[in-house]
Amino acid sequence: MQINITEWLEQAAAAHPGRAAYSDKDSSIEFGTLRRYARSIGTAVAAKSEPRKPVAVFSGRHILTPAAFLGAAYAGCFYAHIHCKLPAARIEQILGTLAPQLLITDRASLDEVKALGFDNERIIVIEDAIERPADDAVLAARLSGANEEDPLYIIFTSGSTGRPKGVITSHHSLMCYLDAYAEVMGIDESDVLGNQSPLDYIAAVRDIYLPLKCGCSTVIIPKELFMTPAALFDYMTERKVTAVGWCVSALTLPASLGAFEHSAPKYLKKICFSGSVMPCRYLRMWQLNLPGAKFVNQYGPTEATASCTYYEVKETVDEGDVIPIGRPYRDYRVFLLNEDGAAVPDGEEGEICVSGPILALGYYNDPERTAKDFIQNPLNSAYREIIYKTGDIGVMRANGELMFKGRRDRQIKHLGHRVELDEIERAACRTEGVAECCVLYDREKETICLFYTGTASVRELSLSLRQTLPGFMIPRKMKQLEAMPKLPNGKTDMNTLRIIKKEKLQ
């Protein structure tokens, strides 16, 4: 039984030494070379760090960055990938929580890393480390002391308090998830994965680690191509991309900009989307242009190792359809609880809760928040069973399919009515000329505020909403934007919208 992600790499390198594991626009790296580089980096890390200690990685979105991740794993350590372009205050917060002994960086980021106050003894430069031989005895000793619950990585997410939360995930949890994901999506050694997300985002773990498990290859797609969808599709065809696991916005943008009028990704057959609700008008475009492809809706938080449920969309959707988030992946258990911690009957709303070996180990260096969010299952008093309460509201159908209803904290009481802000967003997105939208609630002023992009005027949008929503749900404030502000992971930047609301909608 394999307990460590490096065992997957050893297996892949033995089976496919000359096959490309990763490629970007300029170069590629074969499994055999990846193994050699990762072991060299691991030796450098082991010389400066004890096992089970955090290592910060500052490296760009290119083929050498996964080698740094795997190098930390070979040394028995765990890593946190930190984007150098994050605001300085954000980086400071993350480093304060992480307190890493070491930092791995590429040469291009070295000056920025030194500006953070790290001395040369605490910095490992990837391009230098890979030129040195690996110490097989040291690495073997580190692996012999490993177990499946050892942490592999930390991904920092936004926190309600304003302080980033470091979600720490074990080797075993990730391997369980990828086993299940590969099974559902049918990923095998013939596939070429198209990476869209930043490498510090949870969605990237599929693109990084599935090649090690399956012997497939990952193409790191240049970021700029997502702003020119026709060129994006051409690039995907040129690189023979067969499978993607993208955030919803990465799929809706090409469709909304008319990319299918030019062409379609010729080899793309397996499409997974997650991160937000997929507008069916755009999913339908993808289905009609790629009639032989598999489409899977995936749901789940970082705390459940990327995702916990899936739904294969076999039917061609209509614009007004709502897609289920489906059934649990293998090794997951998903159920609903009410506010009192009691089970919720089928057909009634409750908070989505998750349990199983795929749960994160908690929040790094934050026992209080870990204890608050990872709790004993209130339905089980017989033995220890930790669950994660997602904060999302769902309804379980009688057939076992789960429907997403919105965030618990996205439900408001407005003018004496209970209102789901997500419902307003869905109605707005069905309006002709609206590309994207986001709704915020000003509790102090009891005002619903809507931000959107597209060609529709505020008047046209208002008239459309009045046709589908009761009066008390119509936003009092609406603002048309040239572009929706986004975080590096592709999700809407809510903090920026709050600033716009304060400055522009007073």
Structural class assignment: alpha/beta
Radius of gyration: 23 Å
What's the mean pLDDT score? Answer: 92
Give me the count of strands: 26
Major pleated sheet:
7 strands, mixed
CATH class of the largest domain: Alpha Beta
Tell me the number of helical segments per DSSP (H or I, 4 or more residues long).
Answer: 16
- Please tell me what the overall shape is: globular
Strand order of the biggest β-sheet: 6-5-3-4-7-8-18
Helical content (DSSP H or I, runs of 4+): 25-40%
Distance between the termini: 60 Å
* Count of structural domains: 3
The CATH architecture name of the largest domain reads 3-Layer(aba) Sandwich
Q: Classify the beta-strand content into a percent band.
A: 25-35%
Enumerate the spans where pLDDT stays under 50 for 5 or more consecutive residues. none
Q: Write out the CATH superfamily name of the largest domain.
A: ANL, N-terminal domain
CATH fold title of the largest domain: Rossmann fold
